[in-house]
Amino acid sequence: MLGYLFHSTGFKTIPKCYKFYFIFSLEFFHWIVSSTGNKNVVCRHLELSDMDSVRKFAKETIEKEKKIDVLVNNAGMASGKRKLSKQGHELTLATNHYGPFLLTILLLGLDLGDMHFKNRSYSWIASYGQTKLCNVLFTNELARLLAEKGINKKRDSEQFTPRGCKN
Questions:
Q1: Under DSSP, is residue 17 helix (H, G, I), strand (E, B) or coil?
Q2: Which of these, 16, 49, 62, 124, could form a disulfide with 95 (CB 3.0-4.6 Å)?
Q3: HSE-up of 84 (CA within 13 Å, CB side)?
């Protein structure tokens, strides 16, 4: 388990304790402590499909932790039937993407609700940082989409057109 690797290093770790897996998570929490000897493990409640829960988790983490060295976004769930999150998003998308995305943005201190600095003081470094993050996120997604179309780095100039079709 990836989590076990981090826990066994002795670093302070915060496994996310999901509402519907809370009993399992507490058992897992105790197992981590006993099997690794790492007593520097904290268990906090987080429901990744609920954006209010994500905001609360991020706020508590920022208030209680001096720094975060590693953030592992490895959520994965699927539902046999279409279900909605508390905010009305499709549950799998909310849990596997929206929640981890929001958590990462909040822990980085970015405010996507005010990207134009209308309601917060302007900082050139914050502005620059959020634009560069947007570029990285867009570039990674673009690379994935282009790879699906068979467009690769070797011959992009020959294969890429404004409509993404091969010549």
A1: strand
A2: 49
A3: 4
Pick from 56, 58, 57, 42: nearest CA to 105: 58
d(CA 115, CA 2): 34
* Phi, psi of 107, rounded to the nearest 5 degrees: -65, -30
Contacts of 159 (CB under 8 A, 6+ apart): 150, 151, 152, 166, 167
Q: To 10 degrees, the CA torsion angle through 111, 116, 117, 119?
A: -80
d(CA 26, CA 75): 18
Of 167 and 124, more confident: 124
Q: How many CA atoms lie within 13 A of 24 on its CB side?
A: 5
Catalytic residue numbers read 128
Domain chopping of the chain, boundaries: 2-113, 114-167
Other beta carbons within 10 angstroms of residue 80's beta carbon come to: 5
What is 2-113's CATH topology?
Rossmann fold (3.40.50)
**Confidence label for 11 from pLDDT (cuts 50, 70 and 90):** low
CA distances from 79 to 45, 52, 90, 162, 167 (A): 21, 21, 10, 37, 41
pLDDT digits (tens, 9 = 90+) for 59-118: 998 998 887 777 777 777 888 899 999 999 999 889 888 898 888 888 888 767 788 888
